[in-house]
Amino acid sequence: MSFHDESFNPPLPADDRTQLIPQPGGGGTQSADNAGRASISAPLPLPPAPLSVGKTAGLNPLEAAAAPLLALLTRLRSTLAHSAPASLRAQLLAYVRQFEAQAQAAGSARNEVLLARYVLCTALDEAVLSTPWGSTSQWGEQSLLITLHNEAWGGEKAFQLLDHCLQSPAERLHLLELLYVCLCLGFEGRYRVMNNGRSQLDALRERTSGAIRRIRGDFERELSPGWRGVKVARRRLSPFTAPWIGMVIGLALLLLLFLGMRLQLASDSEPVFESIHALGELPVQPIASAAPRPAIIERPRLAAFLAEDIKAHRVVVEDEVDRSVVTLRGDEMFRSGSAIIVDEVQPLMLRIADALRKVRGQVRITGHSDSRPIATLRFPSNWALSQARAQEVREVLAAATGQAERFSAQGRSDTEPVSLNTTPEGRAKNRRVEITVLAEGVE
Questions:
Q1: For the whole model, what pTM was predicted?
Q2: Which burial class, exposed, middle or buried, applies to 126 when counting CB atoms under 10 A from its CB (0-12, 13-18, 19+)?
Q3: Domains of the chain and any CATH numbers
């Protein structure tokens, strides 16, 4: 099989633009189950700027250009729900186009870029379709691979391409390294449904790693090639100096180094978390005839049960059509930089738990913070602090109600402010915990 086989190089239009496959049965009224997955009548706007993933020094041109897409592979696979798969698909297509432009600008051949695009589309489609929301959406009918290569499944051909690259790894090193990264990030392809597929895939990954290492050379096993110092004769300051003093100083230096690296890591990861949170939040254009809303069995109403606390301004309750949201101010629940609920709020938590027992539906607890950064050993970032506070509220309510399966917790840092972060009052409003009860049938 030649590297330039037509099977790996399907004909493209002259301008090589994305081909959108029309949806069968379009224009009809969709059922309630498909209401959240209505097709879009016009292309969504592209993201205003490419996703930044930091420096890509040491990567080959294909890996460097594909870094944003590779960063999303594991994130997509572990996402339990997504409210707008169509917006996500449009954004991924924009990133694929960005990959093509950057790879060709870096000197990669057009044919090699198309093969790399085929592999990336296959891996991203597999990641989405392996999730609960992806497998029940229309992604299988309008996948990235169908849109860009007019093929429904590339799990077989991607590994045929890998076998071909292994036959001449020096000539196809960049593409081989990109395939290896996809394997390390969970891409399984045809091995997903094969008997003993896991062991075969592990063996293939080791074989690929060995082929790359034979060309690139063995990786550097030492953190620094020049770590050995110059040996000089030194006189001890005192013959009575205890040897453990040096050990204590060394341990102290190691601890300081660990704390510094942890704080630096938290600082570098903050913009990445914000970019991931913003993924897929493109505005969806309304369709002409909206599908009916799913039937709600019972609307949760908590305001009546917490009337006294609302009147005393201890909580704010918003009863909406399909949910009820209880908002608690973070400054009254936690001490600064802490995720432990103060004793004064415990009676209020018990009253909220008693109200939750009287309504049905899943309970989602969301922690929010202001925009001022935090950097402590316990909480290296606002993401960690908001997640810990939401988890603490979840544990208290789950224990009080005895219905742990209803509760989930998530931290949102400062990504969803309700007020400006430029004043102390605004920041205080943003430091909050929201307890959302969803009506049955609402996700």
A1: 0.42
A2: buried
A3: 34-216 (1.25.40.590), 307-438 (3.30.1330.60)
